[in-house]
Amino acid sequence: MKKTMISLKFAAIAALSLVAQAVSAEQQVIKAGHVLDVATGNMKASQYILVDDSKIVSITDKNPAPNVKQIDLSNQYLIPGLMDMHTHVVRHLSKNFYDGYFQSPHRATIGGVVNAEKTLMAGFTTIRNVGAADYMDVALRNAINAGEVPGPRMAVSGPSLGITGGHCDSNALNHSFEERSDGVADGPWQVREQVRKNVKYQVDVIKFCATGGVFSKGTKVGQRQYTFEEMKAIVDESHTHGRTVAAHAHGTEGIEFAIKAGVDSIEHASYLTPETIDLAVKHGTVLSMDIYNTEYTLSEGKKNGVPQENIDKEKQVGTRQRESFSHAVKAGAKMVLGSDAGIYPHGDNAKQLSRMTQFGMTPLQALQAATINAATLIKWNDKVGELKPGMYADIIAVSMNPLSDIKTLEQVNFVMKDGKVYKHDKQ
């Protein structure tokens, strides 16, 4: 009898808990002027979006809950929150190229808090951060998820893997300082160990440098780094642990090796050829190409102390990267928006969209790259990337139809993430 009473007591507590949850879940109705289906390009007018707590319940042409809180966006165009698949939000806030050597590394985490909020307010509700020392991006992601600071959803990589002296190493100081980046690993077994370490500390994605890069000392942009065996080991170990793999790769050989090794995305992809594009299409490898930031680097880099070596490398690679982008679009390669924000100011991520249309994409293709394609890449397509029932209520609004003028997304009027309103400029 005593056991029965205890069981009934716990059952009653559980029932009350469920009631409390149901009552506390906040319902809202958004009265939308227009709602874009990014999968099809269909734009529906005069819609009502019912949001319950953090998720979308329904999208209909009649108000399903007249008595709950209403948000009037009847003169706005609503689309899913945008997604940037190549960012570096964890950075020192100073513009000076070398200030990281003179400021506490913890200030980079503080910079990440500031930059994450700027990114969210610009309408980017999900980002992938590809490269951060000391697992600072993991800490920032966890703080955002806990509701401690505002910011987008984050898929994070922690320290990027790279060869000794390569693009993902730190090479500015002489040998007496023994400068070395956190993710440096050489040889198939060392790279497996570094992947396992990153997984241990809860990263979402593994990033490695397959070639040299623009913003590193002493590396050639197009030169391959890592052997095929090392790349295969990175990919195998990462996929074994359920992590996707992003490969920084400007040069043709590095791109080819990385695709054949089985990476999920190629970052930058500057020196594409017809053969490497066909290879990417065949393997389903996603291309993330940051074609906006060339102008910013060339116009502002010198003022911010960027060495001439790096500016010269940007001059070398920028035009070719844009040509490669156009060829990849024509070939039907899978592509996502990856801005490389951090090289230029955070919050300007949407400027990438107009460049994507300038160099071959339709506005709808650019929006798909920044929504459903990105969600699929990070395997979150059951949660984000579209406005439909069951998805998280990550919703942004602009004054004009983005399919007519993609630049309207550079001025977002409304931002909701997880059903919470972060920005609402009355229009």
Secondary structure elements and pairings:
Blueprint: H1 2-24, E1 27-36, E2 43-52, E3 55-60, E4 69-80, E5 82-87, H2 106-121, E6 124-129, H3 136-145, E7 153-156, H4 188-200, E8 205-209, H5 228-240, E9 244-249, H6 252-261, E10 265-268, H7 274-283, E11 286-288, H8 293-300, H9 308-331, E12 335-336, H10 351-358, H11 363-369, H12 372-377, E13 395-398, E14 414-417, E15 420-424
Parallel strand pairs: 1-4, 5-6, 6-7, 8-9, 9-10, 10-11, 11-12
Antiparallel strand pairs: 1-2, 2-3, 4-13, 13-14, 14-15
Helix pairs in contact: 2-3, 4-5, 5-6, 6-7, 10-11
Structure description:
It contains twelve helices and 15 strands. By secondary structure, the chain is an alpha/beta fold. The protein has a seven-stranded mixed β-sheet, with no helix packed on it. Helix 5 (228-240) links the parallel strand 8 (205-209) and strand 9 (244-249). Helix 2 packs across helix 3 (136-145). The longest helix is centred in the last third of the chain and has 24 residues, at 308-331. Residues 1-24 have low confidence and may be disordered.
